[in-house]
Each structure stands twice: as structure tokens, then as C-alpha cells.
Amino acid sequence: MSxxxxxxxxxxxxxRTRQSITSSLSAAGRATGVVAGFxxxxxxxxxxxxxxxxxxxxxPYEWRELIRQLDEVGSRSFPLVxxxxxxxxxxxxxxxxxxxxxxxxxxxxPATLVYSVIQVMGPIITGLVVSGRVGAGIGAELASxxxxxxxxxxxxxxxxxxxxxxxxxxxxxxxxxxxLTVAADASGLMAGWLAQTLVEPLSFHQFVSSGFSGATFxxxxxxxxxxxxxxxxxxxxACFQGMNTRGGAEGVGRAATNSVVLGSLFLILADVVLVKFxxxxxx
Amino acid sequence: MAASTDVAIxxxxxxxxxxxxxxxxxxxxxxxxxxxxxxGVSLSVNRGETLAVLGRSGTGKSVLLRLIIGLVxxxxxxxxxxxxxxxxxxxxxxxxxxxxxxxxxxxxALYDSLTVSENVAFPLEHHRKDLSPQERAERVRxxxxxxxxxxxxxxxxxxxxxxxxxxxxxxxALALEPEILLLDEPTAGLDPISxxxxxxxxxxxxxxxxxxxxxxxxxxHSARAIANRLxxxxxxxxxxxGSFEDLQQSDVGFVKEFLKQS
Lengths: 283, 262
Description:
The complex is a heterodimer. Chain A is mostly helical. In chain A, 84% of the residues lie in helices and 0% in strands. In chain A, helix 9 packs antiparallel against helix 10 (249-281).
């Protein structure tokens, strides 16, 4: 500062440089923290997966809890998945009819609907619906058990919580996703055919024979069974988020939200890899 | 011949009881971030003995119990259960040791989706597969009768009071007939009558089951009623350990202040 009390440009310059350096350092610190947090999260997820795997393959097996979870994930998700599948079937039917008519390929309608529903939309819609319903449910339930010390109580009772809570839920998701996908596919095809028939009558027999003509198992089985991976992702992320919750009600809410957001995100990212894998392995 | 063998086994067990403490905590340190919770704590409890751990809130009393049952691990030092160091054990190996222990959580930690009887049956269903469903139900009834809750078998935890939840938690902790009982604030938040009932219940269980017990509490009157020995924790260290009279005779300022305020 000059003697007159007025700050000169020469005084301001070093001060701005210092501010700029401090701000750069703090930004670098934040970035390092984010990167470290990212790797820590994946490291913890890896250790969690290892604990669950070890618990899942060694006795005693928790059959009763597994059956309860199969019902929770499968039977109770069925109406929602079937409804979502039907809605997707109707949307594809409406869009496909319009586009195919425009390009003079109306006869391709049944095959377009069948392939669109079974290969693309059925699996991903089932995955996202289950991620929303089951992922949030598992995340919130386990988080609530964690913050109220119920998981500690299970452990203190000499019962392995990874086996009782996590392995059963993940396995239920893995086993139920393909079955729910078949339900979503069936409901989507029925609804799509119905939407078409209401506008322009098409017999169900004609729809099926035309839609599935020349179809092989390779065209339909891999897209259906890839949902096993979706089930694993949904169950794993939700159990991990739930069992590692901290804090009270806020922590429970965060676990439920993260279970859905991260589960859905990883599911879509996994789909990119799975689609390419299926195209290469089952051409 | 058989009788003399039994006597020999009993004598050997008694000798073992004396030689190896049921719980031995040696120079345990535990920190959370920069906060030192336990700073070189050493304690031991033998069979048939009850140790009350006293101290202000946040001095690491509950953490000590969690360390003993293996829910958290120590930064250094050792925790031995009947001579076995629990450090580094996997969940299933720890499980074998935990079957010998009963734990009553501060807020009971009952499974909120299960009824009172299902809560008590939980450890039996997992570890007493030899029991038929009828035998298991009978054992649950006995355990709940022992804590005065036999009339509330079908109620949900949310439908019973805090004191009743602690009774059910105690019944669950006793389900596997533990040799070591860990009680975290068994009378906290209860009215004086309920507190007295819980104290009487603990004394009755000690007389009947002869377990090694560690009771964490900040209630000096309750501790005096149920414990053989008392240990006072302050700033992560045991500042005094002994009988109630030993505490009264202590010259440590914190001990005097604690006794004065209690």
C-alpha cells in the first residue's frame, strides 16, 4: 500500500498471485480428495463383494431368508414390471407403426416389435424398474437396520450378516431378474399387439408367426440372461449402500437414493458392455 | 469311578476358571479419527464375577463392550475371550466365540420386523438346530418368563415400552446360555422402578447362571447393586478399579467429583 493510503497496482499484483495460487492449491486438494474418495469407494465395494462371496459359498445356507427374498424381489415386483413392459410395448407399437408405414415397411411390424421388446427394451426396463423398487427397498431396509444397531445385533448373535442379509438379497435379484424380464417381454408383446390390433386388425397367430420367423435362441436368450448381471449389480449396490450407512434418518434416505441412482447408472453402463459382448459372442 | 472323574473334571474347570479370565482386555487403544476414545485400557473379568464400567457419557464405555464382542477392532492391545485373542479373526471364527457371549444393546436393538418371541427365537433358530420347533417355542417361553415378558409373545417391538424392550433384549442375549454377558446401559432411560426391576433381574440371572458379566453404566447406584467390582473410565483411561469402598477412598479428583454428583 502506498503512503497516501491508496492501493497501487504493484501492491495488488502479488496479492492476486497469492490468491490465485491458494485457489489453485485448494482446487487441486479438492480434486485429489474426489479421486481418493472414488478409489476408496471402489476398494470398499470390492472388499464388501469378497465378504459376501465368501459368506455365500460356505455353509450354513440361509434358505428360509432366500425364499423370503425371492418372493419379495420376484412376486412383488411382477405387477410393476408387467405394467412397465406393457407400456413400453404400446409405445414401441405406436412409434413403429408410424415409422414403418412412412417407409413402406409395414409388414416388418411384428418382427420390429418382437426384436425391440425382447432384445432391447424388455431387459433394460425390467432392470430399471427393479432397481427403483427393490434397490431402494433393500437400501432403505438395511440402512435402517444399520443405524438402529440391528445388524450389529445379528453379528453379536454369531450370525454372519453378509450371509443372512446380503448374499440372500443379491442371489434373489440374480435369480429373479431373468424371470421378471420374460414377464415384461410377454406383457410388452401382448400390449403392443393389442395396440396394433385396435387400429388395424392383426391375428395373434399371424403376429407371432411373422414376428418370430427365422428367430434363433441366440437372438433371445442372451439378452434375457444378461439381466443376471443387472440383478447382481442392483443387489450388490443396494446391500453395500445399506450396510455401510452412517447417520440417522438422513443416512437412511441417502442410502435409498444412492442405491437407486448408482444401481441404475451401473446397470446402464454394464448394458453397453453386455450388448457389445453379446454381439461378438452370439452374432 | 464315574463320580470321581466328574469331580476331577469339575476341579479342572474350576482351575481353568481361575487361571484364564473369561474376558481379558490388555492395554487397548482405540481412536476414531483424531479422537482418542480408549487409551491403554486393561481390565479382566472371571467367571461368576460382575464388573461395572462407569464414566461420563462419551468416555468410550460402549466402545469397550463393542471391542470385547468384536464389533470394532482395537488399534493396539489385545482382547482375549477365555484365553483366545480375537484380533484378526474372520466373521465365522468370531461367531464361534460369540456363541458363548450375550450382548444387551443400549437401545435393545430388537429386530423391528419380528415379534417379541421371534426376536428371542432368532439365535436359537440359527445355532440350536437340534431343537424341534416345539422345544424351541418352549425355550422362548421360558426365557421370556425369566424376564417377566411371557404375556407379550406376539407383540411387535414398536408396541412395547423401552423397559420391556430391554427385558426382551436380555432374554435374547440369554438364549444361547452364554458364559459371558455384556450389558450396555441396561437401566438408561428407565424410571427408577423399572431400573430396580432390571437390576434385580440381573442379580437373579447371575445367581442362577454364574456368568462373567460386564455392565456399562453411568448409574452408580445400579452399579453398586449388581457388581462385585467397579472401574471408572475418564478420558480413555481406567482411573480407578476396585470395590465401591475403594472408589470412596480414592484421592483422584475425578473419582470424588463423580461420586459427589452421582
